[in-house]
Amino acid sequence: MDWDVLWSALALVLVLEGLFPFLSPQGWRQTFLKLLQLRDGQLRFFGLTSILLGLLTLWFVS
Q1: What percent of the chain shows pLDDT beyond 90?
Q2: DSSP classification of residue 56
Q3: Which of 21, 35, 38, 49 would give a disulfide with 42, using CB separation of 3.0 to 4.6 Å?
């Protein structure tokens, strides 16, 4: 793997993560408060789903 690609991907993640709080701080805050109310199992499910979707996307792209 080329290290430049890894750093570019991490930078893109930071850009995407920053868009929602920049564009809609109140909406981001409300969403974050709802996330705090979820149980550990629910958060793990969303995390696992995100990981699997990311891996599937990488598989299709490469």
Answers
A1: 82
A2: H
A3: 38
Q: CA separation (Å) from 56 to 11, 18, 30, 45?
A: 20, 24, 30, 16
| Report field, pTM of the whole predicted structure over 0.85 | no
Average pLDDT of the residues in 41-58: 95
Contact indicator for 25, 32 with CB cutoff of 8 Å: no
Which helix or strand (DSSP H or E) is residue 4 part of? helix 3-23
Domain count, the chain: 1
With contact defined as beta carbons under 8 Å apart, do 40 and 48 qualify?
Answer: no
Which residues have CB under 8 Å from 34's CB, separation 6+? Answer: none
